[in-house]
Design brief:
It is a single chain. The protein is mostly helical. Among the domains are: 111 residues, no CATH class; 149 residues, Methane Monooxygenase Hydroxylase, Chain G, domain 1 (Up-down Bundle). Helix content is 74%, strand content 0%. Helix 11 runs antiparallel to helix 12 and helix 20 packs parallel to helix 22. The longest helix is centred in the first third of the chain and has 104 residues. The termini are far apart. This is Exocyst complex component 5. InterPro entries: Sec10-like (IPR009976), Sec10_HB (IPR048627), Sec10_N (IPR048625). Keywords: Coiled coil, Exocytosis, Transport. It holds the Pfam family Sec10_HB.
Length: 700
């Protein structure tokens, strides 16, 4: 620790008796001074002793430094001598190396021609053996030296290829051509390769393949390898999975055997596609091509999908530079004959299948589709009958059937969805929008025209006249189902058709076609407003049958026990059902539009109905109760105009019971002030006491 003088003195004083640092002891300055003086003397003695020791060590250090410097000088001299010797040795080594390189070049210049001469001599020796017709050399007779024999035969074959044909025949060198020893040895090598492959000896296969690389039969060796690889590889029913497993296994092995593994693997894949897969696809498709279009299309889609999936798996292998184009050509070679006329088969099947689904449905309903007039005399008669109530013939009785089926719609949409999926997969990219549009046209024809439009036309023709009694209004059910179906149609349009045509000119055509369909259906739905006439007609029948003149002019004014009339109860019940049906059948702004029209007509009916009776005081009270109930019913419409009309009608009914003296005050009230005086007068005239001079005087 660093020396601190203050702390050192404190410790010294603390240890000294009488130093004053320890509690309970009297402070003795003399004793402390004496202790300090003695301690200073001790420190001086210690300092002198240490100083002498330091001087001695300094002298020793100086002596050793001189000795070390002398030794370093001697080592430097020795190092210089060694460096000079090293330079001399390096120069000598360089001189010797130069001589050795020169000698090596001279030896190589002599040895290379000598080696060539030796090889030529050996070839001449083997050549003589072929000329004599007796192969005695060990290299030809020993099967274990087939590699050396192959090298010799290859060289002799090249020599024979360079000789003129006449000389070749003169020297009997024909054995080196294909029918001779060359061919025999080539076959022997291929047989050896085959045997090694069956034994699973990869090293031997690699060795033989390297020898055959310089022979013409190398490609045959590859063919044999590919053929043997496939033996026992396709034993299951799933040829695509077998092919993927086979290629995966061969990919690991081919690099250990051949010097060009990507070429061999590509040739194997080509063989699998052109032989195994093409044969399998043909067997699966030709069986149903002419007899069963549905199964044919399903098989075509499934096989093409599985083939492209296999191609995607094979993309991970090294097949050369442009493997995408290579695999695409292989797929096209298999399916080109089936894809050329795919869309015609698709449209034909979709047309027949859709027609069968619709016909099966109508047959289940025992319904024979009839031609519903959409123009001409028949349409004119129907429209005149519905709007004027003229007896131009009865409406078509549908017996409560809407002729719309969720099951039929789901089947048609499902068939079309599958057709879109097949179209996306099987169509050429350039033809995809056009083909998708044709499928969409089929859907429009059978779903929208043949099913929805027919049901709307039938529903319109089945709307009863407004004077019909107990008429069943099934057209709203038709509207409800048609609305639901069209939402499904629109969903398929967005989910399955739009992705296929979104970036093509066909998009505008499809959107326009869809718009035309919507407008056409909206026109027919607008025609269905005649249903409201039937509703009003039903209300008229209820009021005519249930409302009695005595309801509002009872014989006993003091004994009226009902809150509102029976006719009011039945009309309100009927109206509430129709309002609920309209809300369930339509959506969006159409609900408010139809309910407003119905509400206005409902108000007009009640207004005109009330003016057919005379009212006593108690009868007027009962009329007010009826109108209050009608007003509650009007609240279900949730239309401000309709509720306002019934509020005004309720205020008008107050004129039936108000005291004569208060008539002017009531007529000038907020709800009646803006009404025409004739309307007010018409209601006052309904009072049984109207002819009294007092009432007439007050209202005048």
């Amino acid at each position: 620790e660093p020396f601190v003088a203050d702390e050192y003195i404190e410790r010294l004083a603390w240890r000294t008796p009488g130093g004053g640092s320890r509690g309970g002891e009297a402070f003795d300055p003399k004793r402390l001074l004496e202790e300090f003086v003695n301690h200073i003397q001790e420190l001086q003695v210690m300092d002198e002793r240490i100083q002498r020791k330091v001087e001695k060590l300094e002298q020793q250090c100086q002596k050793e430094a001189k000795e070390f410097a002398k030794k370093v000088q001697e080592l430097q001299k020795s190092n210089q001598v060694a460096f000079q010797h090293f330079q001399e040795l390096d120069e000598h080594i360089s001189y010797v190396a130069t001589k050795v390189c020169h000698l090596g070049d001279q030896l190589e210049g002599v040895n290379t021609p000598r080696q060539r001469a030796v090889e030529a001599q050996k070839l001449m020796k083997y050549f003589n053996e072929f000329l004599d017709g007796e192969l005695k050399s060990d290299v030809f007779t020993n099967s274990e030296k087939i590699k050396e024999a192959a090298d010799i035969i290859q060289k002799l074959h090249l020599i024979a290829q360079e000789l003129p044909f006449d000389s070749l025949m003169d020297f009997c060198c024909y054995p080196f051509s294909s029918p001779g020893k060359y061919h025999d040895l080539e076959c022997q090598l291929i047989q050896e390769f085959t045997s090694a492959q069956r034994r699973g000896e990869i090293s031997r296969m690699r060795e033989v393949a390297a020898v055959l690389l310089h022979f013409k039969g190398y490609s045959h060796c590859v063919d044999v390898y590919i053929k043997q690889c496939q033996e026992g590889a396709f034993l299951r029913n799933d040829v695509f999975e077998d092919a993927a497993i086979l290629c995966q296994r061969v990919n690991k092995q081919v690099g250990e055997v051949f010097s060009n593994p990507e070429t061999v693997l590509a040739k194997l894949i080509q063989n699998i596609f052109e032989v195994k897969l093409q044969s399998y696809v043909k067997d699966q498709l030709e069986e149903h091509r002419k007899s069963d279009a549905e199964q044919y299309l399903k098989n075509l889609y499934d096989l093409y999908t599985r083939t492209t999936n296999l191609s995607s798996k094979l993309m991970e292998f090294n097949l050369g530079t442009d493997k995408q184009t290579f695999l695409s050509k292989l797929i096209k070679s298999i399916f080109i004959s089936y894809l050329e006329n795919y869309i015609e088969v698709e449209i034909g099947y979709l047309k027949s299948r859709s027609a069968m689904i619709l016909q099966r449905y109508y047959d289940s309903k025992n319904h024979q589709k009839r031609s519903i007039g959409t123009g001409g005399i028949q349409d004119l008669k129907e429209r005149i009958r519905q709007r004027t109530n003229l007896p131009l013939g009865p409406s078509i009785d549908t017996h409560g059937e809407t002729f719309l089926s969720q099951e039929v719609v789901v089947n048609l949409l499902q068939e079309t969805k599958q057709a879109f999926e097949r179209c996306h997969r099987l169509s050429d990219p350039s033809d995809l929008p056009k083909n998708a549009f044709r499928i969409f046209s089929m859907l429009v024809e059978f779903l929208c025209t043949e099913h929805i439009d027919y049901a709307l036309e039938t529903g319109l023709a089945g709307i009863p006249s407004s004077d019909s009694k107990n008429a069943n209004l099934y057209f709203l059910d038709v509207v409800h189902q048609a609305n639901t179906i069209f939402h499904l149609f629109d969903k398929q349009f967005n989910d399955h058709l739009m992705p296929l045509i979104s970036s093509s000119p066909k998009l505008s055509e499809c959107l326009q076609k869809k718009k035309d369909i919507i407008e056409q259906m909206e026109v027919k739905l607008d025609m269905g407003i005649d249903t409201l006439n039937c509703m009003i007609g039903q209300m008229k029948h209820i009021l005519a049958a249930e409302q009695k003149k005595t309801d509002f002019k009872p014989e006993d004014e003091n004994n009226v026990l009902i809150q509102y009339t029976n006719a009011c109860v039945k009309v309100c019940g009927y109206v509430r059902k129709q309002v609920e049906k309209i809300r369930n059948s339509m959506d969006g702004k159409n609900v408010d539009t139809v309910l407003m029209e119905l509400g206005v007509r409902f108000h007009r009916l009640i207004y005109e109905h009330l003016q057919q009776y005379s009212y006593s005081c108690m009868g007027g009270m009962l009329a007010i109760c009826d109108v209050a109930e009608y007003r509650k019913c009007a609240k279900d419409f949730k239309i401000a105009l309709v509720l306002q009309l019934f509020d005004t009608l309720h205020a008008l009914c107050n004129l039936l019971v108000v005291a004569p003296d208060n008539l002017k005050q009531v007529c000038s009230g907020e709800q009646l002030a803006n009404l025409d005086k004739n309307i007010l007068h018409s209601f006052v005239q309904l009072r049984v006491d109207y002819r009294s001079a007092r009432l007439a005087r007050h209202f005048s």
